[in-house]
């Protein structure tokens, strides 16, 4: 055995001795971790734990499904938003052929404001049809999430604008406006559409205005006023020829309109066929502050009237026509309104002159029609209430002692609901013997007549005054006008016979 082998054996022996010198582990210890105390449980507890685990899992699954459903409804409501109002679409219509959808009321307002294409993509469109398939999806969504529906007030206003199930036709695009003349001279008056030779209107001004771009020596200077035979349109304010076939003039404000600039706007139509400006629908009246001013800020009475209009399906144009017909039946007609300066300074142009103040009033512009509607709105409501279509809870209210001068009717809504502040005079159709209108309590009649000479209408103070109104007696001048009324009822004839005797 060599020396090297001994060295190896010695090293091995030393290693074994060092190993044997390590402390020995007790038999009770173990290299494994002890079991958890919760594992060392009885058999009953184990069974109970196994029963509770499925219930917890079910609850967790329900919570997870609820969160998923909420997320899904949020995403769906986001996808079903109207492209105009950015709310959940209400009574949707689909625009063809691009197939974008919007609220029916939003689409109607888009067309009214001059829209001729799709509000979303501006693509050429011709019609918007009810989107019934999408309506079913919206109904399902609202059943699962009722809080996403529109408010009742919003739905009422939308229903006034768009009737469900109706298709909407989009008007064709208008011709492009001519580019602005940046270098156009402002020192001279430029010719009107009828001044140019060969114009498309088959009529030329007898005194045409020279074009300053081609004949500056004969051009009309602005400082010299308006050229003879010309005026400015009350709507577009462009120059017009007074004698042109397309020109019309409002007989109330005496402003002329060209009939060329804007269709259905640059025109003074016949009085009964005109549309009051800004009063096209029930929704326009709701948003008009002037309507509330007509009732001295009594919002309660305005809401009663608006609800009545909706129930009876009355439009602002229908009210305007009845007001005009009532004014035309009066001895002085529109003269009283003109004397009140009701139609002065409502346009931005200089009005014309009327050499004959007693000339007939046959034409009216849109702004003057709106003034007539607002001026006669309260009296129209007084006459309409007497027809007996209102609820008894409204007509049987006690009259406020202060009447229309009450200062509480504007701020105190409870006081406005409890008392009647619309106290007016009876209509010509009221009972002549008692001067009480049918369908309205006698306490709502105004039997006072402090100054009849300052009123265009006789007040109901006696039977004679009512009969004079039926006979169209003009109390201002004391001359009886020819009777222009329908044949009186038998009761009225009896009263006439008794007074004549």
Rg, rounded, reads 42 Å
- Main β-sheet, spatial strand arrangement: 2-1-3-4
Distance between the termini: 173 Å
Largest sheet: 4 strands, antiparallel
Low-confidence stretches: 19-32, 425-490
Oligomer: single chain
Helical segment count = 15
Beta content: 5-15%
- The overall strand count is 16
Q: Provide the helix percentage.
A: 25-40%
Categorize the overall geometry.
flat
Write up what this structure looks like.
The chain is an alpha+beta fold. Mean pLDDT is 76; it is low at 19-32 and 425-490. The protein is 36% helix and 8% strand. The protein has helices at residues 3-20, 43-79, 104-112, 132-144, 152-161, 282-287, 289-294, 299-312, 316-329, 335-339, 366-385, 392-395, 413-418, 463-470, 490-500, and strands at 92-96, 100-103, 127-130, 168-169, 188-189, 220-221, 230-232, 239-241, 248-249, 256-257, 269-270, 363-364, 398-399, 419-420, 473-474, 479-480. Strands 2-1-3-4 form a 4-stranded antiparallel β-sheet. The N and C termini lie far apart (173 Å). It has 15 helices and 16 strands.
Layout of strands and helices, then pairs:
Blueprint: H1 3-20, H2 43-79, E1 92-96, E2 100-103, H3 104-112, E3 127-130, H4 132-144, H5 152-161, E4 168-169, E5 188-189, E6 220-221, E7 230-232, E8 239-241, E9 248-249, E10 256-257, E11 269-270, H6 282-287, H7 289-294, H8 299-312, H9 316-329, H10 335-339, E12 363-364, H11 366-385, H12 392-395, E13 398-399, H13 413-418, E14 419-420, H14 463-470, E15 473-474, E16 479-480, H15 490-500
Parallel strand pairs: 13-14
Antiparallel strand pairs: 1-2, 1-3, 3-4, 5-6, 7-8, 9-10, 11-12, 15-16
Helix pairs in contact: 3-5, 9-11
């Amino acid at each position: 055995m060599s020396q090297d082998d001994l060295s190896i054996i010695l090293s091995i022996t030393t290693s074994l001795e060092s190993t044997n010198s390590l402390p020995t582990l007790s038999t009770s210890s173990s290299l494994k971790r002890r079991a958890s105390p919760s594992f060392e449980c009885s058999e009953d507890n184990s069974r109970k734990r196994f029963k509770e685990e499925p219930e917890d899992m079910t609850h967790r699954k329900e919570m997870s499904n609820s969160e998923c459903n909420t997320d899904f409804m949020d995403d769906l409501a986001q996808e079903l938003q109207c492209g105009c109002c950015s709310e959940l679409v209400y009574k949707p219509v689909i625009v063809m052929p691009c197939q974008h959808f919007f609220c029916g009321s939003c689409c109607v307002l888009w067309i009214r404001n001059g829209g001729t294409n799709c509000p979303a993509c501006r693509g050429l469109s011709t019609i918007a049809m009810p989107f019934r398939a999408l309506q079913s999806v919206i109904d399902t969504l609202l059943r699962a999430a009722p809080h996403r529906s529109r408010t009742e007030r919003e739905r009422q206003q939308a229903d006034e604008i768009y009737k469900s199930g109706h298709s909407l036709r989009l008007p064709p695009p208008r011709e492009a406006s001519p580019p602005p003349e940046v270098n156009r001279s402002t020192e001279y008056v430029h010719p009107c559409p009828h001044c140019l030779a060969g114009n498309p209107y088959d009529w030329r001004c007898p005194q045409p205005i020279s074009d300053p771009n081609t004949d500056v020596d004969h051009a009309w200077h602005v400082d010299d006023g308006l050229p003879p035979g010309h005026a400015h349109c009350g709507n577009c304010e462009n120059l017009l020829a007074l004698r042109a076939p397309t020109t019309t003039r409002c007989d109330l404000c005496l402003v002329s309109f060209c009939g060329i600039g804007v269709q259905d706007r640059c025109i003074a139509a016949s009085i009964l066929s005109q549309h009051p400006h800004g009063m096209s629908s029930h929704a326009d009246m709701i948003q008009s502050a002037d309507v509330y001013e007509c009732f001295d800020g009594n919002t309660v009475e305005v809401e009663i009237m608006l609800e009545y209009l909706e129930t009876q399906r009355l439009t602002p144009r229908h009210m305007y026509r009845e007001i005009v017909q009532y004014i035309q039946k009066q001895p002085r007609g529109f003269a009283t309104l003109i004397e009140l300066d009701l139609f002065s300074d409502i346009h931005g142009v200089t009005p014309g002159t009327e050499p004959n103040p007693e000339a007939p009033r046959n034409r009216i512009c849109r702004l003057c029609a709106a003034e007539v509607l607002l001026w006669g709105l309260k009296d129209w409501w007084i006459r309409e209430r007497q027809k007996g279509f209102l609820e008894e809870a409204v007509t049987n209210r006690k009259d406020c002692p202060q009447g229309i001068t009450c200062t509480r009717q504007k701020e105190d809504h409870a006081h406005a609901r409890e008392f009647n502040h619309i106290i007016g005079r009876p209509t010509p159709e009221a009972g002549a013997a008692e001067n009480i209108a049918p369908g309205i309590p006698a306490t709502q009649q105004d039997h006072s007549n402090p100054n009849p000479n300052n009123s265009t209408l006789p007040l109901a103070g006696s039977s004679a005054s009512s009969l004079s109104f039926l006979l169209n007696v003009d109390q201002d001048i004391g001359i009886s006008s020819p009777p222009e009324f329908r044949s009186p009822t038998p009761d009225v004839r009896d009263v006439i016979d008794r007074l004549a005797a």
